[in-house]
Amino acid sequence: MRPVAEHGLLVDYGDRFDRAIWARLIDLDARLSSETVPGFVEAVPAATSLLVRFDPMTTDHAKVGAALLVLLAVPPGEEQRHTRAHVVDVCYDGTLAPDLVEVATRCGMSTEDVVSAHLNSECHVQMYGFAPGYAYLAGLPAPLHLPRKTAAKRDVPKGSVLIAGQQCLVSTLTMPTGWWIIGRSPTAILTGDETRPFLFDVGDRVTFRRISRDDYDRCLT
Question: Which residue, 3, 99, 190, 193, is most buried by CB atoms nearer than 10 A?
Answer without folding.
Answer: 99
